[in-house]
What does this fold into?
Amino acid sequence: MAARRKAPRRRARRSFNISAIEAGTALSLAQSTGFATSVQQALGGDLSGAINNMSTTVLNNKSKIIGTLGASAIAKVAAKSFSSGTVAKLGPIRVKL
It folds into this structure.
């Protein structure tokens, strides 16, 4: 009698993709909105101060925020024309457009 084969086990993917355009947009927006300081303030217990701080920063930087969003939209449209969207690969991380 023949030995039974074991069922193949599924393995998790060893790499993951990061969209360079989306990551850059997110980092720029986080900086333009004062997100880090607002989160620190909220975690310290001053929720109303954190919201006020973020709204003031957004109003002061709204032209920069609109420019960032416009540039990322143009970059995403332009990136669709590339055949291979991979910009860089470092170990398990791939930076794609």
